[in-house]
């Protein structure tokens, strides 16, 4: 699967995330932000575009309705942030902490999560198209009633993830690991799994395998 990466200029002026508080339209673009701390804030309907954020902290921050296009995050901490009802396109999250983030009712397109922590993250009722989770932990994360189109989970730890009412048809989880998943047999149809995972699912379905 080919994913469009963020189109970001190579030379960007530096800003602090608090600069957005002084913007009339709550918009930041064409800049780089490093070591900014923006915790426990409420800032709805922010727009970010063509920018890089590194080593920033947004813990417990309410970003409901955020719109992001062509944005790269690296070593950022979004623990327990609210990013529901959001639009996230052509963005990368590398080595980021997204523990317990609320992404419900959001739209993702051409997004990559790499070497990141997404345990307990909530994606319920979201649409994910061309989204890749790679070398990341998504344990006990929630994908209830989502729409997946060209979604991959590569070498992820996904124990306890919830896929109820979400079709995994065409989704490849064969390189990922888990003890159990919350998923219905009908939603597993067409899911790409390894031989070992097939045996795991057979046990979950109550089948007795005889050599």
Helix/strand layout:
Blueprint: E1 14-15, E2 27-34, E3 47-54, E4 67-74, E5 87-94, E6 107-114, E7 127-134, E8 147-154, H1 195-204
Parallel strand pairs: 1-2, 2-3, 3-4, 4-5, 5-6, 6-7, 7-8
Shape: elongated
Distance between the termini: 36 Å
The Cα radius of gyration reads: 18 Å
In terms of quaternary structure, the protein is single chain
> What is the beta-strand fraction?
25-35%
Q: Which class in CATH terms? A: Mainly Beta
Number of domains: 1
Helix percent reads under 10%
Structural class: mainly beta
What name goes with the CATH superfamily?
Answer: E3 ubiquitin-protein ligase SopA
CATH architecture annotation:
3 Solenoid
Largest sheet: 8 strands, parallel
Explain this structure:
Helices cover 5% and strands 27% of the residues. The protein is mainly beta and 211 residues long. It has a single domain (35-204), classed as E3 ubiquitin-protein ligase SopA (Pectate Lyase C-like). An 8-stranded parallel beta sheet has the order 1-2-3-4-5-6-7-8, with no helix packed on it. The longest helix is centred in the C-terminal third of the chain and has 10 residues, at 195-204. The radius of gyration is 18 Å and the shape is elongated.
Descriptive key words:
211 residues, mainly beta, Pectate Lyase C-like, 8 strands, 5% helix, PA_immunity-related, Pentapeptide repeat-containing protein, 5peptide_repeat
Short summary of the structure?
This protein has one helix spanning 195-204; strands at residues 14-15, 27-34, 47-54, 67-74, 87-94, 107-114, 127-134, 147-154. The chain has 211 residues and is mainly beta. The radius of gyration is 18 Å and the shape is elongated.
């Amino acid at each position: 699967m080919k994913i469009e990466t963020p189109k970001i200029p190579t030379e960007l002026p530096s800003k602090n995330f608090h600069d957005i508080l002084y913007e009339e339209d709550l918009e930041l673009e064409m800049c780089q932000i490093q070591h900014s701390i923006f915790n426990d804030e409420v800032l709805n309907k922010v727009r970010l575009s063509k920018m890089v954020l590194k080593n920033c902290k947004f813990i417990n921050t309410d970003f409901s309705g955020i719109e992001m296009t062509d944005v790269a995050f690296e070593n950022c901490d979004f623990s327990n942030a609210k990013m529901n009802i959001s639009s996230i396109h052509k963005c990368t999250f590398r080595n980021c902490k997204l523990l317990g983030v609320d992404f419900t009712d959001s739209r993702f397109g051409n997004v990559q999560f790499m070497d990141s922590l997404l345990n307990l993250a909530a994606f319920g009722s979201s649409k994910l198209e061309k989204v890749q989770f790679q070398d990341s932990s998504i344990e006990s994360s929630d994908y209830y009633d989502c729409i997946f189109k060209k979604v991959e989970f590569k070498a992820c730890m996904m124990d306890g993830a919830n896929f109820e009412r979400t079709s995994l048809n065409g989704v490849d989880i064969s390189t990922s690991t888990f003890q159990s998943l919350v998923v219905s047999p009908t939603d597993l149809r067409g899911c790409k799994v390894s031989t070992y995972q097939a045996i795991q699912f057979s046990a979950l379905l109550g089948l007795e395998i005889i050599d």
